[in-house]
Design a protein that fits this description.
Helix content is about 80%, strand content about 0%. The protein is an all-alpha fold. Helix 1 runs antiparallel to helix 2 and helix 2 packs antiparallel against helix 3. The longest helix has 25 residues. It is globular.
Length: about 120
């Protein structure tokens, strides 16, 4: 990757992080879309999207907690199921061609729903 591509990816991911976090999301689908559009390998996309998602979600959760909106009673049922299944999803290793097809389908469906 040349320096211009690195700058472009960084700017795009920064915009995605800003836009997604402004509505309370961490942006994983956006990061995956950006990295896929720049032809990055799925073996790089998965961990990078996970790290970016954790960072943005952590900042958002901290801000939410600081504002006094956090409720353990509401949080724990989601955490009990989502945390183990996130590891299961991360453990799965799809072949690159299947991964790209699935990402394309999900992004197209998201675009249709958005429109």
């Amino acid at each position: 990757m040349n320096p211009d591509q690195v700058i472009a990816i960084t700017v795009c991911i920064g915009i995605v992080a800003f836009l997604y976090s402004s509505v309370g999301h961490a942006g994983a689908s956006g990061y995956i879309a950006v990295m896929t559009l720049f032809s990055m390998a799925p073996s790089v996309i998965k961990p990078a999207a996970l790290v970016l998602n954790i960072m943005v979600a952590s900042i958002g959760a901290w801000q939410f907690w600081r504002a006094g909106h956090f409720s353990w009673n509401l949080f724990w049922p989601f955490a009990v199921l989502s945390i183990p299944f996130a590891f299961v999803g991360g453990y799965l290793n799809l072949p690159a061609h299947i991964f790209k097809i699935l990402v394309g389908i999900v992004l197209l469906l998201s675009a249709v729903k958005f429109l």
